[in-house]
Design goal:
Elements (H helix, E strand, L loop, with lengths): L15 E5 L28 H13 L4 E5 L9 H10 L4 E6 L4 H11 L3 E5 L5 H8 L4 H13 L5 E5 L10 H10 L3 E5 L18 H9 L4 E5 L7 E5 L5 E5 L12 E4 L4 E3 L8 E2 L1 H5 L4 H14 L17 H4 L2
Parallel strand pairs: 1-2, 1-10, 2-3, 3-4, 4-5, 5-6, 6-9
Antiparallel strand pairs: 7-8, 8-9, 10-11, 11-12
Helix pairs in contact: 1-2, 1-9, 2-3, 3-5
The structure holds S-adenosylmethionine.
């Protein structure tokens, strides 16, 4: 039976779950993981599809209606279609995925058929050589093919995630913004966050929203049209544009007071806040015969553990573990 007890200690409604389904990735983005990669867990340490679906069922009983599948690279998981199908069958209203798009061209149609609603594609540059450098080996052409196939499969809303980095891709901000004149996509500029072992991408490399807004205002009339929708993004539109430009600025414009999410790591730990290592293990109880009531209780415990806000602030030396481990 569904209950409405998913409010946390700070009266925030928790109705969104982000699930990392693998810590493997076929790219090594310079601001996400170190060149040598990160520790990889054994496959037996990862949650199985059945375990993930069981947890989603518990989450849905506690009021979760929106799920995002991420990683690592979620499309590397061989049983992803079955997983999408099983999650959608639970009646999840909004089921989305975040992908680097390298394998999306062949997967977009099958994903839609399995029940996926929409897709976010990470693409930090539209320059082929630069893409190869930033991802340490990625092929931009394959990502564009993925974008085309996602459109063809009607995986709407289509969002493009861009992390602007000073001196690396910040000269392309207006090119990305111009895309919204022709395309009804959401371009989302995500503020660079400090990640362990990627220390040189620190606060000097971070391009703040005000700077991005100033650049984009040179393209045309550019106004805020939605202070905050259902997520952390502040959304703007260029006059006459079909698409939207969003800014997600966890550090310079902290949005914790609107946070509505929990994360589940690929190893089966609920992470109440991206920026806190305070996690709750659900894999061990699940593998030791925990009842549904116990799972519900662990979910509620995680909701109660959510801090009022993160402790990362400008110039703070705190770092996140690699995103592939916790799900970006
Ligand atoms: N492999 C998938 C992808 O590339 O979209 C999903 C995982 S990736 C970790 C999810 C998102 O996290 C990507 O959009 C990526 O740009 C973002 N991300 C990774 N490291 C980041 C950082 N240091 N600061 C801001 N965003 C980051």
């Amino acid at each position: 039976m569904r209950t409405d007890i998913s409010k946390d200690t700070f009266n925030r409604q928790i109705d969104y779950l982000r699930i990392s389904i693998t810590d493997r990735c076929n790219l090594r983005c310079v601001y996400c993981v170190p060149a040598e990669g990160v520790h990889r867990f054994k496959s037996t340490e990862m949650l199985t599809n059945m375990e993930i679906v069981r947890f989603v069922r518990a989450a849905s009983r506690q009021g979760v209606t929106k799920i995002r599948i991420t990683g690592g690279e979620p499309l590397l998981r061989a049983d992803i279609l079955e997983l999408i199908e099983s999650i959608k069958e639970l009646g999840i209203r909004d089921l989305a995925i975040t992908t680097n798009g390298m394998a999306l061209a062949k997967m977009a149609g099958p994903l839609k058929k399995a029940g996926l609603d929409r897709v976010n594609i990470s693409m930090d540059t539209m320059k082929t050589d630069r893409y190869r450098l930033m991802t340490r080996g990625g092929e931009l052409g394959r990502v564009w093919e993925g974008v085309e196939e996602a459109e063809r499969a009607r995986l709407y809303l289509l969002k493009i995630n861009v992390v602007p980095i000073r001196g690396m891709n910040d000269d392309e901000v207006t090119d990305f913004a111009r895309l919204t004149m022709e395309k009804d996509w959401h371009i989302r500029f995500i503020e660079l966050m400090p990640v362990d072992h990627c220390g040189k991408w620190s606060s000097e490399a971070r391009v703040k929203k005000a700077e991005l807004v100033e650049k984009i205002s040179g393209v045309g009339k550019f106004d805020l049209f939605e202070f905050r929708g259902r997520g952390p993004s502040r959304n703007y539109r260029l006059e006459g544009a079909k698409g939207v430009i969003g800014f997600i600025s966890p550090i310079s414009e902290c949005f914790c007071q609107w946070c509505n999410r929990l994360r589940l790591t690929a190893q089966g730990r609920i992470r109440p806040c991206l920026f806190s290592d305070n996690e709750i293990d659900i894999r061990t109880p699940m593998r030791s015969g925990a009842s549904d009531e116990k799972l519900d209780q662990l979910f509620r415990q995680a909701v109660r553990l959510k801090p009022d806000g993160h402790r990362l602030r400008e110039n703070d030396s705190a770092c996140l573990p690699a995103m592939s481990a916790i799900g970006g």
